[in-house]
Amino acid sequence: MPTVNPQIFRKFKLDSAPKRRAQPQFSPTGRPTKQPRKTHTKSRNGCATCKRNRVKCDEGHPICGRCSKRQEGCVYEEKPSPELRDNVGLQEIVLCDQLLDNRAEHERLEWRIETDLAYSFINNILNTVSPYRPQREPNISAAAMTPSTHLTQHLAKCIDTSFQSYPGCELFHRFVLPNCAATPALMHGLLALSARQLQHLQPSCQFHERAYLFHTQVATRLLNQELTQATIAVKNLDFIFATCLLINMISFATDETIPSNSWLFMSDSASIDNALNWFMVQQGMGYLSKILNRNPNGSVWNTELDADTSCNPLFVIKDGLPSYSDLELIPQTLAEICRITADSTPGNNSYYTPLVLLSRAFRIKSLGLGNLNSYLSFGPHVPQSYRILLRQKDERALLLFMLWLMLFEEETCWWIGARTRNEYAAVLWLLSRSEDQRIREVARDPTVFVRSNASV
């Protein structure tokens, strides 16, 4: 009779078999003793990456120490605070899209996005005035992105580090944030800025990148819908301006550090448009600024910024032509290069307004009165004719462009410094090889422009 190995039976267990219980331990008095519980060292509020790797997380925000050292994606699970639970608007972001009427579809899109969504797609969206709604194919793969609640919790810190002036921070904390839930475009713009800064802090994290691209696309589409309306409600002007400002900041930001990758060294028209979009999109700010200035009810932006004593009134842009005194601020060398004469006007010389703006900016900088807001006003207020010349790589337009970038030489803000330094190096390299000796001389020593304004 064949024998059965008893080891085989150890592999099986009857469901009805009684469970083996640990034998109780007794004290010398005969009473059962309570077994001490092992020390619990697990972090319950740690990031998802540390939990997945079963390691203790130091719970650092926005990036924990372990993920920062390992250059891994650091995303915290969505656990709204009591304040966020009470604020339905921050939990439920309304996308105002017919495709998102179903709540399940809303939540799915809020957490997931196509993996092939790229920068060029966003740039095309930013560069058009017509609304566009991307169609989701059922067979397209998707990947997770940073949850909106995590981006919301990072907003306060993001604003403090993105706005260098006190009025700007105060305005966003007291006016924009408390009212953003009622304006979908503004809400998505804030989430996009939060995700963009997180992606800047941790470039290897694709979750942040996808969230930044997704919310930028939605904010831009909704903003375009507002701007294409026959009439814009006065009460919405301040929020529309805030949304446009956020989109400008997002498009301005870059992590590029190689000057040779600049649009200046591209030949394909579509590539140039996408790469230069960060500057071209600023035109919308100038358009909205004029509307706000003409608003009879006033604007919270003008009210708050006027209270900033560091903003010099010499830099205020008016609809009328610059006065003749502005011409006296322009160095003679640049006036000759750009063919500026006493008869020049913004209508007959495309370099006139940009050169006057730069002259004012360097003048107030030499007096110690300049600030980031005054320097950034150049982009929104230059005429379209100048933008076209810049797009065509006209050397005079590039020279003024380089001088504007030089204003930010000491700027360290995360969304400004990298862009201006990289573009400045690219323009300087190109103009140093110009056939015009005067342009080469200014490119070789651009500080002559600063010294000329300081002596006035």
UniProtKB/TrEMBL annotation:
Phylogenetic classification of the source organism: Eukaryota, Fungi, Dikarya, Ascomycota, Pezizomycotina
Keywords tagged on the record: DNA-binding, Nucleus, Transcription, Transcription regulation
A molecular-function term among this protein's GO annotations: zinc ion binding
Region (Disordered) location: 13-45
CDD domains according to UniProt: GAL4
Biased composition (Basic residues): 34-43
UniProt keyword Transcription regulation present: yes
PANTHER family per record: STEROL UPTAKE CONTROL PROTEIN 2, ZN(II)2CYS6 TRANSCRIPTION FACTOR (EUROFUNG)
Start and end residues of each Zn(2)-C6 fungal-type domain: 46-76
UniProt protein name: Zn(2)-C6 fungal-type domain-containing protein
InterPro entries: Fun_TF, Sterol_Uptake_Regulator, Zn2-C6_fun-type_DNA-bd_sf, Zn2Cys6_DnaBD
Protein source organism: Aspergillus minisclerotigenes
UniProt-listed PROSITE patterns: ZN2_CY6_FUNGAL_1, ZN2_CY6_FUNGAL_2
